[in-house]
């Protein structure tokens, strides 16, 4: 869609070619992935629920990882840190902050060294975070008004990658994801849509992923209770 609508294809905009804003470009890819979820039944058949879960986790992971690696890169480059032990320590600290995970220095080192952006494109990874939040908004809107979500995406992609991110969001009618209230609305919407708000579904329990897999076809007892230990009828 972005390629077909690329303003740089027009002769009068030839000066645009080769210049773009990464945050804006990433919404084009992540937003399209989000909108395609409505077709998962036709694309993946019985595996649609699993693919839906994977897509959500990838998008949420991009938002969190984008912030985590941006903080890692900023600290490393600002302080010109080259000591391996210090780098590992920072990564351990951030994994605890963002994911509440206790990683060994060796495991933390494996994580930051395997992230190629840290070396080839520092300060780029945050683009996945801000664009992921915008994609989640399009995904949630597609649940109730697909035409509106598609319209916003098409307006956004028609800008190419040549408009600043905040300006592109405003022109397309997408909320400002740098606004705390907008982020909270997106988070609450994801929790409600994907069954993440059940108080009795324990984190890291064996059944938690299955609650997410089937959240689009299977409701809990009410908005806060899933009652995972209760019996159910065939109906």
Please give the largest β-sheet.
none
Instruction: Say how many strands there are.
Output: 0
> Mean pLDDT score, rounded?
85
Radius of gyration of CA atoms, rounded to a whole number: 20 Å
Beta-strand content: under 5%
Measure the end-to-end span.
42 Å
How many helices in DSSP terms?
11
The parts where pLDDT drops under 50 for at least 5 residues are none
- What is the global morphology? globular
In percent, how helical is the residue content? 55-70%
Characterise the protein shown here.
This protein has 235 residues and is mainly α. The chain is built from 11 helices and no strands. Helix 7 packs across helix 10 (180-193) and helix 8 runs antiparallel to helix 9. The longest helix is centred in the first third of the chain and has 32 residues, at 48-79. It is globular, with a radius of gyration of 20 Å.
